[in-house]
Amino acid sequence: MSSRKKKDVVQPWRGDAWDSRIYELIEKRVSREFNTLIDVMGIPEYREYPGPAKELLEELVLVFRMARTYIRDVNAAASEAQARKTLEHLIKHPANIVEQVNQADPRTRSLIEKYWPGGPQHIEVVPPDPDAYLESATAAFAALPKPKPGRPPGSDDQASKECALRMADTYRRFTGKSPTRRYDFYSGESGKEYGPFRDFVAAMLSLIPDRLLRSLHPHALGTTKAIDHITRLGIEQLKEKETT
Hints:
The chain is an all-alpha fold. The chain has two domains: 155 residues, no CATH class; 64 residues, no CATH class. It has eleven helices and two strands, in the order ααααααααββααα. It has a two-stranded antiparallel sheet with strand order 1-2. A hairpin with a 7-residue loop joins strand 1 and strand 2. The longest helix is centred in the N-terminal third of the chain and has 28 residues. The protein is globular and about 55 Å long. It starts with 19 loop residues before the first helix and ends with a helix.
């Protein structure tokens, strides 16, 4: 570490460092069920094309890796309170701000991108201009409301949102179809949800270890409620991404 004091530097987000053993276990589990997943997605022809199949496999593995990472490291860091704290730190200690932002959690980085001078930008493509980074951090900090203690009942955490968005985005890119929901209104009072995207979500969630699934939807382990929840959330998050 440099001569700067530890307290003057944003501590790196642990999710950027991967345990190779965990990666291998996740990849093996997805690989084992890969044919089932592509059948559910309606693209069985991927069996005949190693290149696209490898790309899809990597994307499906990434869904699980990102979900685990957000649950382990980002749920707390994704809170408005923590985002304000990190942004305030960047404003007070702007030395090497470009490096610090690149080491910060995804929630803070997304706010920097959203409030970039002149309009939203991706950090990966903007010039490393410390003044622009500081201006963006200042604007993001000013826009965030002062946090209230606790989390609103029924609110979705960042892990659920990111996992659902990844599933929806992957489904659309590889099938060419927008993720949607369908209803069987003759099944019960509220109707029964079904459809190809829901089937894909169900197949993906069936591969998630119980502990991880509880974190994504703690009160719906092993039920259709968890599948319906992630299905709806994925569609909502993808639409929100497109509008912003």
